Amino acid sequence: MSKVHGVLAVPELGIVYASATGTNEVVAIDEHSLKITARAPGGVYPDGMAYAPEVHKLYVSDEHGSSETVIDVSSNKRIGTIQLGGDVGNTQYDAVTKHIFVNVQTRRQLIEIDPTTDKIVARIDLPGAEGNHGLLIEPKQRRAFIACEGNDKLLVLDLESKKTIASFDVGKDPDVLAYDAKFGYLYVAGEAGVVSLFKIEGGQASKIGEGLLGPNAHVVAVDPDTHFSYFPLKDVGGKTILRIMKNDSAGSHP
Predict the structure, then answer these.
(1) In the chain, what are the domains?
(2) Least enclosed by CB within 10 Å: which of 6, 134, 188, 239?
(3) Tens digits of per-residue pLDDT, 181-203?
């Protein structure tokens, strides 16, 4: 694999999927043996991924191909391409509607796709968005959190009304988001190394912390059991390191 940008683990399949932009492929990896089991075309620049379990399909953001690649996980074959009409950001699955949502950065829209038909069912305008790339859906509170690289904003979208209800300043070039459901903590990581922390409660977001964590801290993941947050940093004094943090409910904020 070359230049992996997106990683998605699907425990029920025992597979980890990686989007390899170096070869423009989506690679399936057995989670036990860590061996590659399949490869599928991912488009021009495959990035974020989401899995729709009811239809056994993987949806892959083709960032520069202006489309969403659809892969059948039973055969690991590309079975469709959904044209979106602009540069594509991250993709997420909503467990309530059972729909796929994907950012289209150059249109300042969030696109809703029905996986049963692979048709676009809504184009949601995002006032105040510039380069809406990062995306996280919190299904229980019916909120979508959208990180905008172009103007360093976090937008909060009500998924019921499909309206933006809040906007916050975050660190420069925000990208990946992670959510600790037990404590309601939302992490927003940025390319410049600044991590912003929000408390999500009753559908409302409040910013509770922000700080420089390390260079290029634009990827974050949260362990739901330990509540540790993980930040891979590609170059700290010439070395690649993994920085592990606790939040205040279990230790300390980043």
Answers:
(1) 45-222 (2.130.10.10)
(2) 239
(3) 999 999 999 999 999 999 999 99
